[in-house]
Structures are given as C-alpha cells and as structure tokens.
Amino acid sequence: MGKRAWMCLVCGWVYYEALGLPEEGIAPGTPWEQIPDTWECPDCGTTKADFVMAPL
C-alpha cells in the first residue's frame, strides 16, 4: 500500500495513498502516479498539477 500523501497547494486538501478516495473510484493503496491527470481536487477543483508531496 502507498505510504505517501499529496497536498493541494490551493486549499490544503490531502490525498493519502493508503486511504485512496473510494467515493471517486480510487482504491486504497492507489499510487499518486496512477491517478489520471484530469482528476480534480474534491474540495476546490484544481488539477493534479497543483499538488505537492506532503510529509506524513
């Protein structure tokens, strides 16, 4: 399972690889690289380009 987290620079929402985002069809353990580039932040709608790796 993934052990990294990615934070939105616009709103601060965090994607945890270990948790995934099941409500959007992203299974727990899904690495950030496997999320489509067209995916958008569930809180503010920005793209993957506006995310950075965050410390756990």
Summarize the structure.
The protein has 56 residues and is mainly beta.
Q: Give the overall average pLDDT.
A: 94
Could you estimate the helical fraction of the residues in percent? under 10%
Find the structural class using helix and strand composition.
mainly beta
* First-last Cα distance: 14 Å
Based on CA atoms alone, the radius of gyration comes out at 10 Å
Order of helices and strands: EEE
Q: Which blocks of ≥5 consecutive residues have pLDDT under 50?
A: none
- What strand line-up does the widest sheet have? 2-1-3
Shape: globular
Oligomer: single chain
Could you tell me the number of beta strands? Answer: 3
Biggest sheet architecture: 3 strands, antiparallel
Strand content: 15-25%
What's the tally of helices?
Answer: 0
Task: Set out the fold topology.
Elements: E1 5-8, E2 14-16, E3 51-54
Antiparallel strand pairs: 1-2, 1-3
GO molecular function: electron transfer activity; iron ion binding
Keywords: Electron transport, Iron, Metal-binding, Transport
Organism: Streptomyces eurocidicus
Give structural notes.
- The protein is mainly beta.
- 0% of the residues lie in helices and 20% in strands.
- The chain has no helices and 3 strands.
- It has a 3-stranded antiparallel beta sheet with strand order 2-1-3, with no helix packed on it.
- Involved in the hydrocarbon hydroxylating system, which transfers electrons from NADH to rubredoxin reductase and then through rubredoxin to alkane 1 monooxygenase.
- This is Rubredoxin.
- Belongs to the rubredoxin family.
- One of its GO terms (molecular function) is iron ion binding.
- Keywords: Electron transport, Iron, Metal-binding, Transport.
